Amino acid sequence: MSSLKQDLTALFERDLNRIIENLKKTPEGILWEAPEGITNSIGVLAQHLTGNLNHFVGKGLGDTGFERDREREFKNKPIPKEDLISDIEDLKHTLPAVFDDLDDEDLENDYPMEVPFEATTRGFLIHLYGHLNYHLGQVNYLRRIMSENG
């Protein structure tokens, strides 16, 4: 496995584990709530990240057949915390398998799905990691300001 693929595997796993840690620390009663002026709850952000990565990495690069329902990701329709965590655990197995199947040429080719900007697969994977990290910060911040025990 190339150095980039090893780095991406380690970084995605680390930060998906951080999402899981935040979910475990979030009381079920606030998982689907957001403070006034905030659009997305912790639960919505977790659903969105799972859908996004399953779509762009799982389906886009790994041909997993995942069918994304982006609209559902942003609905504050509560599902159990354990289901959110299970979905992320599944994703933690999907990503390394997909990364492992990519060769250096794949990484340098144009990303194979329609995306909002032109990018190589390498560039788009880096973008996806930034997206994960951005929302991880939101999840962590929301959990701390909404939880009594921070």
List the helices and strands and how they pair.
Blueprint: H1 3-25, H2 42-62, H3 70-73, H4 81-101, H5 104-108, H6 121-146
Helix pairs in contact: 1-4, 1-6, 2-4, 2-6
Span of the ends, CA to CA: 39 Å
**How many beta-strand elements?**
0
User: Mean pLDDT score, rounded?
Assistant: 95
Structural class: mainly alpha
Q: Which residues sit in consecutive blocks of at least 5 with pLDDT less than 50?
A: none
Beta-strand content: under 5%
How many independent structural domains? 1
Note the total helix count: 6
Largest sheet: none
Question: Quick summary of this structure?
Answer:
The chain has helices at about 5-25, 40-60, 70-75, 80-100, 105-110, 120-145. With about 150 residues, it is mainly α. It has one domain (about 5-145): Four Helix Bundle (Hemerythrin (Met), subunit A), CATH 1.20.120.450.
